[in-house]
Each structure stands twice: as C-alpha cells, then as structure tokens.
Specification:
By secondary structure, the protein is an alpha+beta fold. It folds into four domains: about 1-95, Rossmann fold, CATH 3.40.50.20; about 125-180, 2-Layer Sandwich (Dna Ligase, domain 1); about 190-320, 2-Layer Sandwich (D-amino Acid Aminotransferase, Chain A, domain 1); about 325-400, Phosphoribosylglycinamide synthetase, C-terminal domain (Glycinamide Ribonucleotide Synthetase, Chain A, domain 4, Alpha-Beta Complex), CATH 3.90.600. Helices cover about 30% and strands about 25% of the residues. It has twelve helices and 22 strands. The strands form six sheets. Strands 3-2-1-4-5 form a five-stranded parallel beta sheet, with helices on both faces. The protein has a five-stranded antiparallel beta sheet with strand order 12-15-18-22-19. Strands 6-9-7-8 form a four-stranded antiparallel beta sheet, sandwiched between helices. A hairpin with an 8-residue loop joins β7 and β8. The protein is globular and about 60 Å long. The structure holds adenosine monophosphate (AMP) and glycine. Adenosine monophosphate binds near residues 118, 143, 192, 214 and 271.
Length: about 425
C-alpha cells in the first residue's frame, strides 16, 4: 500500500512515524517532506499548494491513500480534485474546509446551532466595521476572515489599536484578500485546549485532548505562534468536562453538517477556551494540529490506517480509540526571531548521538549534503513520553539540551505545572 502525506512539518513527520508502525506496512511518500521525513518516506519536491503537481504525482505513482497535513491544500480543494480523479484522500472537501478557510462561515454556523462561542459581528465595509466597534469592549479580537498564515488574529487593547488594525486589514490589505471581510469578536479569558476529532459525516470521535502553548516566550509572553510546545493528555479537560464538550459542542456539529449537507470527512480540530465551567469554541481547524499531533499519535494505540478506513466506511461509531497511560510532551525548538523574521540554513548539531527515549520530529529542516540544516521558523518538535507528566517533560528537555543550532530558541516552561 502506498500512502502520500502532503506537508513538511512536525505534524507530517509524526503521521509518518505512526504509519511506520501500522500493520499494513505502507510505503510512505511525502510532498515536499523534510530531512526527518526522508528517513521514513520518499520525499518528492512538490509544494503543498501545487494541486496539479500533487495529483499528477499521485496518479503516476499509483498512490492508494493521501493524507493532507496543512489547511491550504484543503481550502484550495485538493480533496475535490483527487476524488474527481478517483483517488482516495483523507480530509474535508473545499466546502467543508470553509470551517477553517472562513471565520465568518464558522461563526454563522456556530450561532445557527447554538454552539457556545464569543459574541461577534462580521463586516465587509470598513465604515460599518468602525461603527461596529461601539458594540464591543476591550481587549477586542479582530480576525481576518480568510487564511492568513496564522497571523490573521489581532487582539486590540484599545480603540486606537482597533481602528489602526481595521485600516491595516481592510484598506492596506496587509493580509491580502483574507482581510476584505473581518470578524470582530469579544475577548474570552481562560485556558485554551485542543480537541482533535475524527469525523465521518455521521459520527464525531474525539481524541485525547492536548494543551498547546501558543505564545513565543516563557510565561505566555510575546507574539502568538503556531505552537511552541504541547502536552497530552490535557490536565484542563477532565472526563466531566469532556462529556459536556461532546454534548454541547461536538454533537451539534454533526447535526449542523447533516442539516446543511456538508460532507465532512477527516479531522475537525476544535480550539476551545475554558474558564471554569464555561467552554467556548474559539476556532475550528480542518486538519490535525501542529504540535498537537506529535503528542497525540504517540499515545494512540489504534492503527491510524484502521481509523481512517472507518472514516471512509462511515463506521466510526464502532471504533473505540484507546490511549496509552503515558503522558507525552513536545518542546518546539525554533529559529531565533520566530515568529517574525529569522534566518535559515543553520547546521543542527547533536541529532545523531542523541541519548534519551523519545522522538525528534522535524518541523522545518532540510538536508544540505550530509548536514541537517534549519529551514523554517519552527525547526524541531522534541517529543518524549513518561509515566507522568514530570518525567515526560524531563525526558523531552534532556534531549533538547543535547541539540544545538545557531540562534535556537525554545520555551523552558512547557508542561511545567506551576504556570
Ligand atoms: P484563531 O486563529 O481563531 O485560533 O485565533 C488564534 C489565537 O488567537 C487563538 O488560539 C487564541 O489564542 C486567540 N484568540 C482567538 N479568538 C479569541 C477570543 N475570542 N478571545 C481570546 N483569545 C482569542
Ligand atoms: N497548534 C495549533 C494549530 O495547529 O493550529
């Protein structure tokens, strides 16, 4: 069986690692992949948004199953194109991918199905948006409607900042077309958690929840990033809360997509804000999270390909996901300057002689002759498991301490329990 993974990050490396343990022993391909993936997969230099190139490769190579890592190809309709060509591909089609591709689409859906979420309003005209500011307090969350490479959410502390942000998005178009429509949203306080779910169109099956650390620096300081570290299982979501999430958030999602004939199969990533008993949806993503995947798949006991088959067969209702009792921690090592500007091409030392029980997932690396060099903002997802969170954390940081590259930065407080 030949499986193609689209993407080049730690998430895709973790997927490949999980597939390499499958009883189906798939032959793995990755487009475009990275230095770490090249140990498990044949990497082919096709960009994630080159849908024609991906399709031509999958047809020529007779790929049996394609797994899509990032959101961009999903929003661009890679699933529709592959399916039209008779190929099996795991992920939502373009219509269903709007749950990530358009924040306004998601807010309308959440409100229609009474799924708890922050109060919001959507605007396509700057004058109306400026007028709309009057209905909100500060801090205020301003979101570009479309995909903006993870940068389209701005938290304005003051009215002056909000006005400037609206001008930047809607007039200067700093995020291009993504900012032609904006969502103003009430700020929610609390702790965020990530609930990743398999969806087959009739059943939604949550995985063990994970905690992501989004801010660049220790103590949750600095800019928002794609995620600087994760741990699983979440300490924030216990069984009682998970039941409430299933009832008030996940089940109404299925009711809604069925009513609206949205054929959703693949992964729904529900980003939640939790404040005591209060749980609100902050966002939907239509793919696995990065670095949530690194700490999730490592604890999943099921064969991933079996669960994916159940999604295709619409038999998820008969699947029981089982989780190892271990805890997992992933610490992201990033390039100095991330999430703003950073340099690439720095040689990474220490990967070969690493001592410690864990996995180094490559997020942004490439091979330069025999060296592994940095090739992105997030570079490595250093991941370890342990019988409790403290030992998993210690094991992950033990590995981090042996890896060096110029300008490397990482948070030192991932999974630290007093923060
Ligand atoms: P999103 O792309 O919608 O996930 O937003 C990115 C990040 O912005 C989230 O992970 C939160 O940290 C923050 N955020 C988004 N919406 C809100 C909100 N209503 N209240 C507080 N923080 C938010
Ligand atoms: N770690 C957050 C995300 O994948 O969107």
């Amino acid at each position: 069986m030949k499986v193609l993974i689209i993407g080049s990050g730690g998430r895709e490396h973790a997927i490949a690692h999980k597939l390499s343990m499958s009883h189906k022993s798939p032959e793995i391909f990755a487009a475009p992949g990275n230095a770490g993936l090249s140990k498990l997969a044949t990497c082919v230099p096709i960009a994630v948004d080159d849908i024609d190139g991906l399709l031509a490769f999958a047809l020529k190579t007779q790929i049996d199953l394609t797994l899509v890592g990032p959101e961009l190809p999903l929003v661009l309709g890679v699933v529709d194109r592959f399916e039209a060509a008779g190929l099996r591909i795991f992920g939502p089609n373009a219509k269903a991918a709007q749950f990530e591709g358009s924040k306004a689409f998601t807010k309308d859906f959440l409100n229609r199905y009474h799924i708890p979420t922050a109060k919001s309003a959507t605007y396509t005209s700057i004058n109306e948006a400026l007028e709309g500011l009057k209905a909100f307090d500060y801090p205020l969350v301003i979101k570009a409607d479309g995909l903006a490479a993870g940068k389209g959410v701005i938290i304005a502390e003051t009215e002056t900042e909000a006005i400037k942000t609206l001008h930047d998005l809607m007039e200067a178009h700093v995020f291009g077309a993504a900012g032609s429509k904006v969502v103003l949203e009430a700020f929610l306080k609390g702790i965020e958690a990530s609930v990743l779910c398999f969806v087959d169109g009739v059943t939604i099956l949550p995985m063990s929840p994970a905690q992501d650390y989004k801010k660049a620096y220790d103590g949750d300081l600095g800019l928002n990033t794609g995620g600087m570290g994760t741990y699983s299982p979440s300490r924030v979501i216990d069984e009682v809360l998970m039941d409430k999430i299933q009832e008030t958030i996940l089940n109404p999602f299925i009711v809604g997509i069925q009513k609206e004939a949205i054929d959703f199969k693949g992964i729904l990533f529900v980003g939640l804000m939790i404040d005591g008993e209060d749980v609100n949806v902050i966002e939907y993503n239509v793919r696995l999270g990065d670095p949530e995947t690194e700490v999730t798949l490592i604890r999943m006991e099921n064969d991933l390909l079996d669960v994916i088959d159940a999604v295709f067969n619409q038999t998820l209702d008969s699947v029981k996901l089982t989780w190892s009792r271990s805890h997992a921690v992933c610490v992201i090592m990033a390039s100095g300057g991330y999430p703003e500007s950073y340099e690439k091409g720095k040689t990474i030392h220490g990967l070969d002689q690493l001592s410690g029980d864990g996995w180094v997932y490559h997020c942004g690396t490439r091979l330069k002759e025999s060296d592994v060099v940095t090739d992105g903002g997030r570079v490595l997802g250093v991941t370890a498991t342990g019988e409790d969170l403290a030992s998993a954390r210690a094991a992950a940081y033990h590995m981090v301490s042996q890896i060096t590259f110029e300008g490397a930065m990482f948070r030192t407080d991932i999974a630290k329990m007093d923060v």
